[in-house]
Automatic annotation (TrEMBL), chain A:
Residues 3-223 form the ABC transporter domain. Involved in beta-(1-->2)glucan export. Transmembrane domains (TMD) form a pore in the inner membrane and the ATP-binding domain (NBD) is responsible for energy generation. The lineage of its organism: Bacteria, Pseudomonadati, Pseudomonadota, Alphaproteobacteria, Hyphomicrobiales. Belongs to the ABC transporter superfamily. This is ABC transporter ATP-binding protein. GO terms for molecular function: ATP binding; ATP hydrolysis activity. It holds the Pfam family ABC_tran. Keywords: ATP-binding, Nucleotide-binding, Transport.
UniProtKB/TrEMBL annotation, chain B:
This is ABC transporter permease. It is a multi-pass membrane protein. One of its GO terms (biological process) is transmembrane transport. It comes from Bradyrhizobium valentinum. Belongs to the binding-protein-dependent transport system permease family. PANTHER family: ALIPHATIC SULFONATES TRANSPORT PERMEASE PROTEIN SSUC-RELATED, ALKANE SULFONATE ABC TRANSPORTER-RELATED, MEMBRANE SUBUNIT. Its main location: membrane.
Amino acid sequence: MRLEVDIASKTFKSAAGEQHDVIAGVAFTLDAGEVGVLVGPSGCGKSTMLRILAGLDHDFQGRVSRPAGARIGFVFQEPRLLPWRSVEENVRLVAPLANEAKLSALFEILELKAHRNHFPGELSLGLARRVALARAFAIEPEFLILDEPLASLDVALAARLRDEIAMLIGGRSVITLLVTHDVDDAVRLGDRLFLLSPRPARVLAELPIRTPRSKRGDAEIAAITLDIMRRINGAPAERDAS
Amino acid sequence: MPRLLSFAVLLATWWIGSLFAGDAKLPPPPTVLTVMIAEARSGDLFFHLGLTLARVTLAFTLAMSLGAAIGYLMGRVRLADRLGDPWLILLLNLPALVVIVLAYIWAGLTEVAAIAAIAINKLPTAVVTLREGARALEAALDEMATVFALPRWKKFRHVILPQLSPYIAAAARSGLSLVWKIVLVAELLGRPNGVGFEIGVAFQLFDIPLLLAYSLSFAAVVLLIETLLVQPFEARLSRWRPRAA
Ligand SMILES: Nc1ncnc2c1ncn2[C@@H]1O[C@H](COP(=O)(O)OP(=O)(O)O)[C@@H](O)[C@H]1O
Ligand SMILES: [Mg+2]
């Protein structure tokens, strides 16, 4: 199972008829069990690319080959839950085959046990994200897409959720594609990082991380992060890497 | 409680009014009640009420289902919207009386003509409301359903219908009050039974107690259906909304 992506270009036409280039050449492949991370600044075209990869947008130049009929688990940038269905119903609806044991385990890991019967309108953003994650994992996806799953959460919460995602991805043979603008998250979760330019997006560099996720120490993560910041900014990162 | 109080005030006003206007113009409540009971005993009241209710149910169901389907189509398919729009504008601006009279002229003084005329009067507002609803459907949720490969029926039931339901409820509510009014006119003009017919008879005989007895029984039935059927239905639909404190 393999994802092959070769998007030559993607343009939006504005209402005034102007062309608006969003992607200017992104090519990569990803195998099952690998976590690819697209790292790029806000507005560079990451979400646009994910919609193309998921088959929601066919209006682009290039080629995308997904495993035929692969189940896709998509965690959208906004949770996109059904407000009129409870947390549990939201998950069960897309995953009618998931049994109780599996759902319990998922809800346990994602700390949703107490919220099964709540409606999405009653949840914080962090909880709604977790429900969206539970929904994506419940279908046993073959292709998992995560669009900024940790954005706009406070640092502690983001760290917890990142560990939970790592736990859920580990041990599954899934093609995982994660999008983030946070280099630290990318280094902690990814196997291969693709650094993207500002809009229109191009791949600036591809960086494999060979140490398995669970064995990456803080020092190594800091070093890689620093290296990436340097490449992106062309100068030493000012960020405190500790 | 406030409802009961308000009802009592209405009754008292009526009674006092009848003292001033005189029994001939505005009979007091007991007189009307006596007529109501007599009509109920003979079975006439239930016969006419039942027929009117049956016409309302048929015309309402017809107009709602047809209107919802057409409105949804027009909201989703541009071509359908373009084709349907002139018809819609025509129907929206056609006075109810014209529709009823034409229906009786073309289809005869028949049950079909009456029900069709009532339904046609309600149809365009249902179409307009549902078209609004279909236009407001969330593309984001649509994409979610597509990515997760929800089967058609499930998507309709769990993703689309809940988004349309406030519009359906609005169309039903305004449609019902429209149908209540029009059914009486249709009966008055071309049916040998029903509340509208009886009111016509009472008018010709200047029998005000009879007129009030039928009008008020009809109003009571409308009120009962609104509180027992329509309002609980609406409450059910908005169950998921976080309640305002
Ligand atoms: N449907 C659309 N029509 C026109 N422009 C769009 C549309 N969707 C996104 N864009 C533009 O494309 C660019 C990339 O958007 P997006 O892919 O959402 O960025 P991000 O990398 O932050 O996810 C932005 O400049 C955005 O304004
Ligand atoms: Mg985005």
